[in-house]
Structures are given as structure tokens and as C-alpha cells.
Amino acid sequence: xxxxxxxxxVIIALVALLxxxxxxxxxxxxxxxxxxxxxxxxxxxxxxxxxxxVSNSTKVTxxxxxxxxxxxxxxxxxxxxxxxxxxxxxxxxxxVYQHPGGDRNILKICGIDGSGAFNNxxxxxxxxxxxxxxxxxxxxxx
Length: 142
Known about the structure:
Blueprint: H1 2-47, E1 65-67, H2 69-72, E2 76-77, E3 80-85, E4 88-91, H3 103-107, H4 115-122, H5 126-133, E5 136-140
Parallel strand pairs: 1-5
Antiparallel strand pairs: 2-3, 3-4, 4-5
């Protein structure tokens, strides 16, 4: 009976994650259109003499930004929540109150490296990682 309750809870959580991921899709598409507008400017910067030292093998993405942990640490509220997980920075503001495990679990990692908490709870769950990917805004640099 206990395993059955756990299975049902897992299914409900996955369905909730799927619904949230689908509902956030248009928001992410708007972000992509903004980054497409920046493409020509960023490409010009990459090709300018000042940045000609960038090698051809360096991956430069327009969609993401570089963040320091100090920058991430400025975003600690339920309406402005950034966290870094495994070197990637996420804006979890829209997810705080959607999280099936409750808002407290997300609020605990706002402004910090939440890798330990995330990995301890979700491990290698690819479905959860797919949902998380929808909130990616950049990468953590030192």
C-alpha cells in the first residue's frame, strides 16, 4: 500500500511538472526572440578586432550570460530567485510557487549554489532536469 501511494505521488508530481513546463513554453520562446534580436550585435562584437582573440573552437551562445556567485546572491526573494546548479544559473522566480515539493524548498536555494540540495533530492531524474532546463539563464563563472 505504501509503494502504491508513493507511485501515485510521483505520477502526480511528474504531471504537475509537465503542466508547468508546457505553460512556461511561450515565456521561453519570448526570451529566444529577444536573443535573436541581439545576435547581430553579439556577432559583431565577437568579430571585432577587440575580441579577435576568441578562438573558433570557443562556443559563444547568445542565449546565456555569465554570472558570478556574487551576482546570483543578489536574487534571493520569491519574485527574484536565481540559483546555480552544477555550474548553470537558473531564474526560478516563476517556479517558486509551482514546485510540487513546496515553495520552501526553492526559497532555500535562492541566491546560492543549490547543487547539493537539487542533486540530493532529484538525483539523475531526467524529467526534473528537463523542467529545470526551461529556467536556464546563464552559466556560473569564477
